[in-house]
Amino acid sequence: MALSIRKKLTIWYVALLLVSLLASSAAFSYYLYRTFLTGIDGQINSVAGRMIHTIVGPSGQLLIPGDFDIILERFFGIRTSGNYIQMLDPLGKVVAKSSNLSGSTLPLSRQAYESAFNGSSTFEIVMVSGKSVRLVTKPIVFTEHGIVAIVQVAASLDIMQQVFHSMAYIFTAGFVGSAVMAGLLGYFLAKKALQPVAEITKTARRIGAENLNERINVAATKDEIGMLASTINEMIERLERSFRQIKQFTADASHELKTPLTILKGEMEVALRSGSDPQAMKEAMTSALEEIDRMNYLVKNLLDLARIDAEKEAAGASPVRLDTALLDRAERLRRFASEKGVGIAVSRNDPAEVMGDPVRIGQLIFNLIDNAVKYTPQGHGVFLSVENNGGSAILKVRDTGMGISKDDLPYIFDRFYRVDKARTRDAGGAGLGLSICREIVESMKGAIEAESEVGRGTTFTVRLPLAGKEKEADKAFSG
Ligand code: ATP
Ligand code: MG
């Protein structure tokens, strides 16, 4: 049977309370019992002692009194009822006894009898006419004759028993009462304490894709439940953010694909209508081809993004020389750059080996140099470097071009983000290059960042763990 936390808490609560009550009342009862017995023992022992003192004559002879009760009352002031006195000879035969014993006698146990012969007293609890009494058995010893008689004094345990009886009632009633009270109180408190959990469950059940903006409404406390609520709220927030990103991405991607399709359709209609004019036909076809190229580029980039995402899990990495890859890419882009009147220079190139896919690394370097050349006006330069600092490889692509404003800088790695939409559409960019770069760098457990100043230029810095040092880098880059 599955019990709710609330019931479990209550049961534990009540059980612990009962156990501790039982333990403490047991300890208390035991202590009280010992105290009672010690008191009674002292009393009967002193009565027996003083009696012996009285019945032994000055020359050592025994003076056995005719009437015990008078002796009892006169000398000891003991009420005869419930208290008994008895005297026996060394053989254990009763010589005299208080009259309240009437038909019966105080029992003499074997152990008490033997101890008497060793000269010591024995305390026992025995039954006399159906009632418990505390009994002391004490020998009377004369030095020259040895044991001459045995004295027994008993006191009733009635009062003690009465006390324990009433205590048992009080305790039982107290236990039941406290258990019920504790149960009710515990149940109520548990309900109060668990109320926020019910609230969390209710909200969490309600939240779906359509209402990811909802949050659990719990007082911002620092206790466990407050933490749970705010953790769940944070989780919903992350979900909401990535959900929004996916929506945005889908919208952007369809829009980006729709534009060239519309243009393409227009060109085709022109071509159809141009009929016998070969010149117009040619222009329309050229323009259509350009749009197809643009779409091709866009679709290829989109596929790349999706693939790099998926590759993150797959381990297809091999050692790649970053410095060689840099030279290779720089060489390929040099012509494109010089056509634009932009120079490319490699300022430093330490040998550095990293783990990754050579095609992706080439793509990363290409995208960065491509941007640097694209967004740098004629007469300026692009500077490349690879630095090996022993733990990681640092790739820098710096240009002295137009730069990126502070407002745009945080978004340039986002998919489809372009600083100047009109301008970059001419340049053919879709705004995917840098997001591809980031995906690649992150799949290699590295980091990428950009610094820029408008009108002065931009520097992209990529840090990648050196081959064989990815483990350490894991901590360094993610921390
Ligand atoms: P794509 O790379 O997909 O062809 P893109 O170059 O426009 O298109 P990204 O490479 O992602 O897209 O760059 C995003 C935007 O960041 C660019 O549109 C540009 O505005 C800005 N940017 C990137 N690199 C530089 C740079 N070196 N200098 C100035 N602006 C830059
Ligand atoms: Mg680009």
Q: Can you walk through the features of this model?
A:
With 479 residues, this protein is an alpha+beta fold. The protein is 55% helix and 18% strand. The protein contains 11 helices and 12 strands. The strands form 3 sheets. It has a 5-stranded antiparallel sheet with strand order 2-1-5-4-3, sandwiched between helices. A hairpin with a 5-residue loop joins strand 1 and strand 2. Helix 1 packs antiparallel against helix 4 and helix 7 runs parallel beside helix 8. The model has no long low-confidence stretch (mean pLDDT 87).
Give the integer mean of the pLDDT values. Answer: 87
| Helix percentage | 55-70%
What ions, cofactors and ligands are bound? adenosine-5'-triphosphate, magnesium ion
Number of strands: 12
The helix/strand series, from N terminus to C terminus, equals HHEEHEEEHHHEHEEHEEHHEEH
Strand % is: 15-25%
Tell me the Rg in angstroms: 52 Å
* Helix count from the secondary structure assignment: 11
Return the structural class. Answer: alpha+beta
Overall form: rod-shaped
Show unreliable segments. Answer: none
Q: What topology, given as strand order, has the largest sheet?
A: 2-1-5-4-3
Outline the secondary-structure elements.
Layout: H1 5-55, H2 68-76, E1 84-88, E2 94-97, H3 110-117, E3 122-128, E4 131-142, E5 146-156, H4 158-206, H5 224-274, H6 278-311, E6 318-321, H7 322-340, E7 343-349, E8 353-356, H8 358-374, E9 381-388, E10 392-399, H9 421-427, H10 433-443, E11 447-453, E12 457-465, H11 470-478
Parallel strand pairs: 7-9
Antiparallel strand pairs: 1-2, 1-5, 3-4, 4-5, 6-8, 9-10, 10-12, 11-12
The structure holds adenosine-5'-triphosphate and magnesium ion (MG).
Residues 301, 367, 371-372, 375, 399, 401-404, 412, 417-420, 424, 429-435, 458 line the site of adenosine-5'-triphosphate.
